[in-house]
Design goal:
five-stranded mixed sheet, 5 strands
C-alpha cells in the first residue's frame, strides 16, 4: 500500500465491507493534511478512507482513523462485527472507526 497503512489491516476491512456491499467497488484514499518537517511542508494522512461505490448510487465512506489501525487484524474483524459498522455506513453514508467506538456522521 502506497499510503503506509498496514495492507493486512486494510484488507481485513475490505473483506468485511465486500460481504456487506457485494455489488460495490471499493477505493482507498486519504484525508490529507499538511505538516511541517524541518520547516518544509510535507504530505501526511490522518485517516484512511474506503469509498464504497456503485454506479447510480451515492457513494458511502468508511473512515478509518489512525488510532483504529493500532488494533490487530483479529481485533479489527471483531470490532467491525461487534459495532455493526456496515449497517452504520449504510444508514448514514459515512461512518468513522476509531479506537474507542464507531460513530456515524
Amino acid at each position: 500500500m502506497d499510503c503506509g497503512c498496514s495492507t493486512e489491516k486494510i484488507h481485513a476491512v475490505h473483506e468485511y465491507l465486500e460481504q456487506h456491499f457485494p455489488d460495490y467497488v471499493l477505493h482507498d484514499l486519504h484525508a490529507p493534511t499538511e505538516l511541517t518537517q524541518a520547516g518544509l511542508p510535507t504530505r501526511h494522512a490522518q485517516h484512511h478512507v474506503v469509498s464504497i461505490r456503485q454506479e447510480g448510487v451515492l457513494t458511502y465512506y468508511a473512515v478509518l482513523r489512525c488510532d483504529f489501525q493500532e488494533y490487530s487484524v483479529e481485533e479489527i474483524e471483531e470490532y467491525l462485527r461487534r459495532s455493526k459498522f456496515a449497517e452504520m455506513v449504510r444508514a448514514k453514508r459515512v461512518a468513522v472507526a476509531h479506537k474507542d467506538e464507531a460513530s456515524a456522521l
